[in-house]
Amino acid sequence: MKRILAITLLALTLAACGPPRKDVIVVGSKNFTEQVILGELLAQHIEKQTGLPVERRFYLGGTYICQQAMLGGRIDVYVEYTGTALTAILKQPAGHDSQEVYKTVKTQYASRFNLDVMPTLGFNDSFVLVIRGEDARKDHVKRISEAVPYAVHWRPGFGYEFMERPDGYRGLIKTYGMKFGEQPRIMDLGLLYRALFDHQVDLIAANSTDGLLEGHDLVVLKDDKNFFPPYQAVPIVRPQALKRHPAVRKALQELAGKISDAQIRRLNYQVAVEHHDLKEVVREFLRDQHLDP
């Protein structure tokens, strides 16, 4: 009994010694590799530039879960994509001017949710349709429009969010008049490429910055009708956190425009394909960009 009491008292003492929630910045992320990389990048940079302790809450789920975590105050900042914010959260039609989409998202997030949208990190992570290179060469397919006649024989594989979003499956088939031979297989994002490699599906909806697009015989179909809106990566942050710790705003602003499409694809490849340590990959990137001492 005394031992149990002693352990309990020790646990309470250690908890009391930890920093209070108001002095901790909580960084969240969705549940795929790129998001965890970006979450770790924000976390490391905030730690270095502000000296504040950062709690990492990664793999939270999809867009809607992260949005609710922000509104509920469970996380202070995470990276969202402007096209996703516009269509999935704000429920507005897809736009194609990146500056206009960013302006709309920034204004609407402030007025409707009291959330700040920071400047873009520099890259655009669009949805893309991907097929095997052997199929593209056999059928002479390079564009989505060219794929329509063959889609009736293809088995598609999509993530849950792509199936539900207006800038996903429903909008795609309406814009291109695409019909598939069977209903899409809905699976975890991490399984899509394996299913494509193993011929379990013939077409997937992926992200343009996926590391697995490098080093494999895959073809990204050109969106020749410009269906997919711009998806610029932007940190979303609670203004309460910025008010308590103004240095956090400066740290996030320092990351503006610092990551290109090629760079994030390389980071994704290092973590997802080469299985390098996440924290070390991010640490090395920040050093190379002269962002952290």
Within CATH, the superfamily of the largest domain carries the name Periplasmic binding protein-like II
Q: Quote the CATH topology of the largest domain.
A: D-Maltodextrin-Binding Protein, domain 2
Beta-strand percentage?
Answer: 5-15%
Instruction: Count every beta strand, where a strand is a DSSP E run of 2 or more residues.
Output: 10
Biggest sheet descriptor: 5 strands, mixed
The CATH architecture classification of the largest domain is 3-Layer(aba) Sandwich
Helix content: 40-55%
Give me the Rg, rounded. 21 Å
Note the total helix count.
14
Q: For this structure, what is the CATH class of the largest domain?
A: Alpha Beta
Characterise the protein shown here:
The structure is a single chain. A five-stranded mixed β-sheet has the order 7-6-8-5-9, with helices on both faces. Strands 3-10-4 form a three-stranded antiparallel β-sheet, with helices on both faces. With 293 residues, the protein is α/β, with parallel strands linked by helices. Mean pLDDT is 91; it is low at 1-20. The chain has helices at 2-17, 33-50, 63-71, 82-89, 98-113, 133-139, 144-151, 160-164, 169-176, 189-197, 239-244, 246-253, 261-272, 278-288, and strands at 25-28, 54-57, 77-81, 116-117, 127-132, 156-158, 185-186, 203-207, 218-221, 233-237. It has two domains: 22-124 and 230-288, D-Maltodextrin-Binding Protein, domain 2 (3-Layer(aba) Sandwich); 127-221, D-Maltodextrin-Binding Protein, domain 2 (3-Layer(aba) Sandwich).
